[in-house]
Design goal:
elongated, 2 domains, Tetracycline Repressor, domain 2, mainly alpha, about 0% strand, 10 helices, DNA-binding, about 75% helix, homodimer, Arc Repressor Mutant, subunit A, about 190 residues
Chain lengths: ~190, ~190
DNA sequence: GTCTATACCTGGATAGAC
DNA sequence: GTCTATCCAGGTATAGAC
């Protein structure tokens, strides 16, 4: 009765959420089945293994990230505006970050420890942000150090997410976000 | 035949290492038993549960951290020297960080996702660094913003560890360490 | 495409001999 | 203090009916 692929999509959606909140390894088929309301045996009609579900989850995250970056590209009128969109996710997603950390960073570190085959794929989510940020800094006129600046913003925000999560401290996160924005303001804008 | 408490210490040592490299949940009694070369049933003479082993591991980490901080306190002649000792661990421990990330950050995020009873204890390792760094900044004459500066250094280094691990990129880590040291140099030293 | 039943394994934990 | 034997829950995965 259900439209083609709906169950599959529901599984990926639930797994995406649970992998984030509980971790990949700690999430069982039973957990996912409870959310989607299907039987456990049914998974294997859609996926051949748990790793297969993980791959699908990573794919949707890559997709979603790309769309988000494209949206920011449209919304922001200047490169600095757009970079600020990135910085601000620490605040807009705070209610999740405080409990579960950064979705990208926590998945990558978990897969690194598991030495999981898909860790390279997961790292590509970081790369999407990296390339996008680099591009923004290039547009600001920072040709040579665009990548270093992108990595700097990436690590800064990543650390704030981790510490914000550990200490559950919104005030600190807000403070660091303000610092990041102030730092961004001091960056020169070079026009050719 | 073995001296009192030797086996226990060996278990904690092996668990400490494996929890770091594989994660707490992914490490089984069998894994630890293989390293220490004891039978699985033997664990329960020394600990009443796996969580008990985790608590012991966290305790030794707290201990070890305190000693390291005390050593840095002695070795460094100025507060800036001492803070540099902290920053440099990213380089001295690089061979581990590149594969397994920061021992403190990765444990705290894992326990946060598991919503584990010991996560508060694990967070105290972060607090040790925080208090120590704060103290250094106070000695530099930064009375009001000492804690904010400490948290800034903590998050910065944490992010570098996470991204360095994901991208396995030593050059980037070195670059960020240099940036952190340069930033430290620009900080004013106020004497009363 | 979804279900039930079940195989098979590994995990943590217990009991009791030595 | 260490061992072996064992229990039981839970995990992934498979087979086959509907």
């Amino acid at each position: 009765m259900m439209a083609q692929g709906t169950t599959r999509r529901q599984i990926v959606e639930a797994a995406d959420d649970l992998f984030y909140r509980q971790g990949f390894e700690h999430t069982s088929f039973a957990d996912i089945a409870r959310v989607v309301d299907i039987s456990r045996g049914n998974f294997y009609h859609h996926f051949k293994s748990k790793d297969d579900i993980l791959d699908a989850v990573i794919k949707t995250r890559l997709d979603r990230t790309q769309h988000m970056l494209a949206d920011w590209e449209e919304e922001g009128t200047t490169p600095k505006d757009r970079i600020r969109s990135y910085i601000k996710i620490l605040l807009t997603n705070w209610s999740m970050i405080k409990d579960y950390g950064c979705p990208v960073g926590t998945l990558c570190t978990e897969l690194a420890k598991l030495n999981h085959a898909s860790k390279t794929e997961a790292n590509k989510i970081f790369t999407l942000f990296r390339v996008w940020l680099r591009n923004q800094f290039r547009q600001l006129g920072h040709k040579k150090d665009a990548d270093a600046l992108a990595m700097h913003v990436l690590s800064w925000s990543q650390g704030v997410a981790t510490l914000g999560n550990a200490f559950d401290d919104y005030k600190y996160v807000k403070q660091e976000v303000d610092k990041m924005c102030a730092w961004l303001d001091t960056l020169s804008v070079r026009t050719k």
